[in-house]
Amino acid sequence: MTGETAAVDVSIPSIARVYDYLLGGHDNYEADRRVGDFFINDLPGSVAIAHANRQALTRAVAAIAADGIDQFIDIGSGLPTVDNVHQVAQRHRPGAKVVYVDNDPIVLAHGRALLQTDDRTTVIQADLREPEAIAQHADVRRLIDFDKPVGVIFSAILHHLNDSEDPRELVRWWVDRVPAGSEFYISHFRTGHNEETSAAEEKLQETFGRGRWRSDAEILALFGDDLEILPPGLTYCSRWRPAPAAPDVETIGVAERELTVWEHLIACVLARKP
Ligand SMILES: C[S@@+](CC[C@H](N)C(=O)[O-])C[C@H]1O[C@@H](n2cnc3c(N)ncnc32)[C@H](O)[C@@H]1O
Question: pLDDT digits over 208-237, tens only?
């Protein structure tokens, strides 16, 4: 699906809307809620994956901004939720520019409504598998200066691609397109090996008919071998640079507590082009 003409068929569940439902959003329809309810009711722990993923993304955007990057391309951005990438980025760098890219037409509609008053942020409808079309889009050319480092975000999207669609090649396209100092963030489902979690993997494959959960080595290989992997490397989203616990509250930090089986299913990693 390319361009901005595709209509929304609400009888077919969409990745963006199911995910929105799991995060507690309201931009979803019955078909999406039916899939979401399967996770909520039959695999309740699995909902934690969506939250762990989203929170890690927030921390990653803050980290990229702290590294001095003030322009972001968020590919497979999803529906607007709390603490969207542009809000996090602009909190740290008020002039930050953000392009959201998603192939679901509903993301474009809701994103435009959210961003009406923000001329540093835009949302375009385009397909991850057509990177040239993304880079050539008028809004991308207007906002992104490809002579300066860019933060390229692939959060919870590459596991929706089959191997035959060559996700590594797509990541490498962006690595080659942006200058040294650019950073790349990936969060990705990890292959699970127990009965409980494999039901989640099966349900997602069955519902959307595509994609693959990958091993840690396969996820890292998506970057190629010439990027600098930034600390702490590839790890569970819940453990990726966790926010420090408030000093006056007695809490068990995520570093000390055991992760649930579900939290083991999503990992993330940040890398820099040297
Ligand atoms: C699970 S959501 C992740 C949303 C957000 N990146 C996050 O991590 O919170 C995956 C998103 O990728 C989008 N998507 C799936 N396949 C895509 C493709 N081929 N091109 C662009 N977007 C795609 C879906 O529409 C959905 O919004």
Answer: 888 988 999 999 999 999 999 999 999 999
Residue 16 CA to ligand 1 centre (angstroms): 6
Look over the chain and give the mean of its residue pLDDT values, rounded to a whole number.
90
Write out the DSSP string of the chain. Answer: --TT-PPP-TTS--HHHHHHHHTT-S---HHHHHHHHIIIIISGGGHHHHHHHHHHHHHHHHHHHHTT--EEEEET--S--SS-HHHHHHHHSTT-EEEEEES-HHHHHHHHHHHTT-TTEEEEE--TT-HHHHHHSHHHHHH--TTS--EEEEES-GGGS-GGG-HHHHHHHHHHHS-TT-EEEEEEEBP--SHHHHHHHHHHHHHH-----B-HHHHHHTT-SSSEEPTT-SEEGGGSSPPPPPTTS----TTTSPPPTTGGGEEEEEEE--
Spacing, Cα 102 to ligand 1 middle (Å): 6
* Position in ligand 1 atom list of the atom nearest CA 154: 6
Ligand 1 site residues, Cβ closer than 6 angstroms: 15-16, 19, 53-54, 57, 76-78, 102-104, 107, 127-129, 155-157, 160
Top-ranked range on mean pLDDT: pick from 2-6, 136-140, 264-268 = 136-140
Which region among 133-142, 179-188, 216-225, 248-257 has the lowest average model confidence (pLDDT)? Answer: 248-257
